[in-house]
């Protein structure tokens, strides 16, 4: 469990990206609120407003630093007054920029029509809904979903999903395992799921009959401000650099 001090509003204004674009990055370790699953998020009050952060019923079981679902409809939800979602992320107008990141893995079961894990967030209506499926990522866009990373194996290992809400543009940016799903960091994807329109809520996990499967959440993090994922240097680049320097020294020694 880790909590960081919230930045002053003036600092947020100074750091707000330009309209319709994400220009800043932030490592998840520097997020304002981080749940590392050593204590159940629904038993914590990280924003110190006197209310538990997440809904107290139907939540995944937290043990050994992981939150796992043990039955259908096990979720983290923030659709109640005083939840951290409504106090930090949603101001009922959709004008707050925020970023959410979650690391989750499939541990068994059969996926539903919408996959084995979902995240639906609503701050302005309609909501944003992203689904992890066995072989792709889908973003709800009404009758036809947007599919990404088709053919990728999402049934093994842990996968990190970052969602950044661009308040100025009224859209979202998505990263999965560090890969940007948007065309670029100047093109947000509009919310396209009408199921939770106007509810000022978030649902994380198995929140409906179209999502099923067994999952394990390693961490869940929230921060004010819209931030892109921090790029991780390719190991090969560093290795080639070392090889290049070594070859140069070898040439000099031979000379």
From TrEMBL:
Lineage start: Bacteria, Pseudomonadati, Verrucomicrobiota, Verrucomicrobiia, Verrucomicrobiales
Cited NCBIfam families: PEP_CTERM
Keyword field contains Signal: yes
InterPro entries in the cross-refs: Ice-binding_C (IPR013424)
Start and end residues of each Ice-binding protein C-terminal domain: 231-254
Keyword Signal annotated: yes
Top-rank taxon: Bacteria
Name recorded for this polypeptide: Ice-binding protein C-terminal domain-containing protein
């Amino acid at each position: 469990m880790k909590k960081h001090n919230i930045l002053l509003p003036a600092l947020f204004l100074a750091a707000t990206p330009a309209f319709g674009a994400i220009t800043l990055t932030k490592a998840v370790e520097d997020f304002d609120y981080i749940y590392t699953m050593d204590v159940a998020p629904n038993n914590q009050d990280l924003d110190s407003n006197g209310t538990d952060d997440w809904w107290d019923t139907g939540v995944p079981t937290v043990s050994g630093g992981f939150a796992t679902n043990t039955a259908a409809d096990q979720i983290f939800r923030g659709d109640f007054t005083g939840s951290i979602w409504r106090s930090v992320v949603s101001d009922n107008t959709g004008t707050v920029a925020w970023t959410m990141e979650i690391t989750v893995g499939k541990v068994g079961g059969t996926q539903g029509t919408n996959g084995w894990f979902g995240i639906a967030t609503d701050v302005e209506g309609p909501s944003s809904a992203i689904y992890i499926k066995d072989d792709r990522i889908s973003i709800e866009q009404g009758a036809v979903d947007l599919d990404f990373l088709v053919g990728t194996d999402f049934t093994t290992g842990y996968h990190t999903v970052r969602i950044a809400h661009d308040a100025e543009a009224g859209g979202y940016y998505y990263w999965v395992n560090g890969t940007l799903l948007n065309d670029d960091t100047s093109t947000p994807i509009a919310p396209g799921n009408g199921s939770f329109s106007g509810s000022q809520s978030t649902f994380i996990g198995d929140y409906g009959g179209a999502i099923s499967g067994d999952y394990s959440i390693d961490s869940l993090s929230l921060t004010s401000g819209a931030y892109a994922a921090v790029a991780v240097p390719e190991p090969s680049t560093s290795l080639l650099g070392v090889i290049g320097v070594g070859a140069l020294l070898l040439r000099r020694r031979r000379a």
